[in-house]
Amino acid sequence: MLYRLSANALLKSVIVVMAAVIVIMLAGNAWDSWQRLIAVSRILGVADASGFAFKAMHNLRTDRSATNRALNAPEPIDAELLNYLRPIREAEMPALRSTADRLETIAFAGRETLLPELQRAIKTLAALQSESLEALAKPKAARRETLAKDYMAEETKLVETLEKLSARFEYLRAIHYELRMLPHCDRVQVCTLENKEYLASFLPRIRGKLQEGLRAGIDTSRTVRYAAFFAQSVN
Questions:
Q1: What is the mean pLDDT of residues 100-112?
Q2: Which fold has domain 28-183?
Q3: pTM of the model as a whole
Q4: Residue 168, CA distances (Å) to 111, 119, 165 in order
């Protein structure tokens, strides 16, 4: 009787342990899949924001030159130029707002400064567009003296902000491919703690493989000596 109870208890224990192991394995796979899904979602968000930013930059450059020319003209804007300018602005502002909206859901380097600057610039540009549209219907003498200069400066600054964001977008695109390979590495060397935390934010499971504070060094002394020798031989 005791033997049967012991065998029965042992069998149940084995079943419980095996079930626990299977559950842990499934949970680990589910967590890994969830992390990959988050990483892919962030990359897709970047692609979406990048498309809106590119559309905005294209229209901003055209709007900047056309508006500057019209505001510096002595006469009120003619119907032909107004009809040319209006669709540009109508495409420009929604693209800018969509870029800002997408960026609110994406983590990227410089977000704490670039996103507020973009949001501020969009509001400022919207006000300048409203003012400039009214001013363009008047002769130059009736317009605010610095309006053309202010409009040019704000749009130039906005283009520069979008260019900085585009650089971040390209980095995140590259990370999409990098993240596929990093889990297969035994150790990943990064330059700084910030780099480590940024990569780990995409794939927390590789945090233990990341080692910060390592930089590639290049010994240039041989090159310098060779260059000096070559210069002497030429002379």
A1: 82
A2: Four Helix Bundle (Hemerythrin (Met), subunit A) (1.20.120)
A3: 0.61
A4: 10, 17, 5
